[in-house]
Design goal:
The structure holds two protein chains of two kinds. Chain A has seven helices and seven strands, in the order βαβαββαβαβαααβ. By secondary structure, chain A is an alpha/beta fold. Chain A has a single domain, classed as Rossmann fold (3-Layer(aba) Sandwich), CATH 3.40.50.720. Chain A has a seven-stranded parallel sheet, sandwiched between helices. In chain A, helix 1 crosses helix 7 and helix 3 runs parallel beside helix 4. Chain B has seven helices and no strands. Classes of the chains: A alpha/beta, B mainly alpha. At the A-B interface, helix 3 of A face helix 2 of B.
Chain lengths: 247, 124
């Protein structure tokens, strides 16, 4: 099946992670133009290295969820309104609810929930001007089934899912829709580290008995950006090989 | 005022799907034209891009008007002066006109949008 897209410009938040780079390659091959955000020189270098085969077929811009001032200039230098947005950003925090430092907790939610709401406001208003936009939030199976120590992570994911869900609820009538994906174990980045640490406790619980590859997750995201998936709006979809379906 | 009003009239007509001649400076946007929150959001985006001015939704749509009135009364301040400080795009006579009208519902009129845009154009 050849996927068709209503638009070409795709803003990819957290553009330097492995999954984002894999997605960007798939997007370019599908005729889209990704604009990847980075928060450091290291991230910008990773994007350049990861996409060196696609020079000129993408662009980058600075955005740091811990730097509120970075919202203002977002897309200012490159003011073409995005038709799509894919959001991979999520800070890491692992501690028990009863042992989290107050400052860390406040900072975590400020960066991972409040800042995200501000980004959504900005991008949604840009999309509203053209009455078209599709946003995909990459959540996690841990949003619903966290391990001990993942409480803050899970809470921030669920809060972010709620933002996307309501955006899709509020603006669908104006052509702007949203979908949240909840991937399970992925053999890439943080997921790969976790799987290596304890293979049986992770992959052993997945009915398909393997982790997802970055490529299959990227292709799934691409599908949800496409016109074929327009019926999915304001909803959350598991992409975990059946991990969260049973006990 | 006329040029700004005409452009706002066209925006409102497009967004609310009403005839342009139904829209006058004295027309109430919510009470008479039936604008909903999503329409106001779309209008804010249109005003921002159409006039290239920053739009504060809370200010232009007078969303905090009642809160300000309550605050002023709580502090025993002069309500009109208090509102003039917080909503500087409105003239004193317009605020005085609004006061007895508050109980009948949202007081926002088309002319208030015009005032806001003109004030933004002059003050950035």
């Amino acid at each position: 099946m050849k996927l068709e897209f209503s638009g070409t410009r795709a803003l990819v938040l957290g553009g330097s992670c492995d999954l984002a780079l894999c997605l960007a390659g798939c997007m370019i091959k599908a005729g889209l133009f990704p604009v990847l955000t980075y928060r450091s020189q290291k991230g910008q270098d990773r994007i350049s290295d990861g996409l060196k085969a696609f020079c000129g077929a993408y662009s980058t811009c600075y955005l740091d969820f811990s730097d509120r001032d970075s919202i203002g200039p977002l897309l200012q230098e490159d003011p073409v309104i995005p038709d799509f947005m894919v959001d991979f950003v999520q800070g890491d925090i692992e501690c028990l609810i009863a042992s989290g430092e107050s400052d860390d907790i406040n900072r975590y939610f400020s960066q991972n929930v409040s800042f995200r709401a501000e980004i959504l406001k900005k991008v949604a208003r840009m999309m509203l001007g053209q009455k078209r936009g599709r946003l995909v939030y990459i959540s996690s199976s841990a949003a619903l089934r966290p391990n001990p120590g993942q409480g803050f992570y899970s809470a921030a994911k669920l809060a972010s899912e709620a933002l996307y869900r309501n955006l899709g609820l509020e603006l669908a009538g104006r052509g702007i829709t949203t979908v949240t994906l909840r991937p399970g174990y992925i053999d890439e980045g943080r997921g790969r580290q976790f799987i290596r640490k304890d293979h049986d406790a992770s992959i052993g619980k997945v009915p398909i008995k393997r982790a997802l590859t970055a490529r299959e997750v990227a292709e799934t995201i691409l599908f949800y950006l496409s016109d074929s998936a327009r019926g999915f709006n304001a909803t959350e979809i598991s992409l975990d090989g059946g991990l969260t379906a049973g006990k | 005022m006329k040029e700004v009003f005409e452009r706002i009239r066209q925006m409102l007509a497009d967004i609310l799907d009403v005839e342009g001649d139904e829209i006058l400076p004295e027309t109430y946007i919510v009470r008479e034209l039936g604008a909903e929150s999503i329409d106001l959001l779309e209008l804010a985006v249109s005003l921002n891009s159409g006039f290239n001015v920053e739009i504060n939704d809370g200010d232009i749509f007078l969303s905090r008007l009642r809160d300000y009135v309550t605050e002023a009364k709580g502090k025993k301040d002069d309500v009109v002066l208090y509102l003039l400080e917080r909503l500087p795009f409105l003239k004193k006579d317009r605020i005085e006109e609004m006061m007895p009208d508050l109980e009948d519902g949202p007081t926002l009129k088309v002319k208030d949008l015009v005032s806001y845009v003109e004030w933004r154009q002059e003050n950035g």
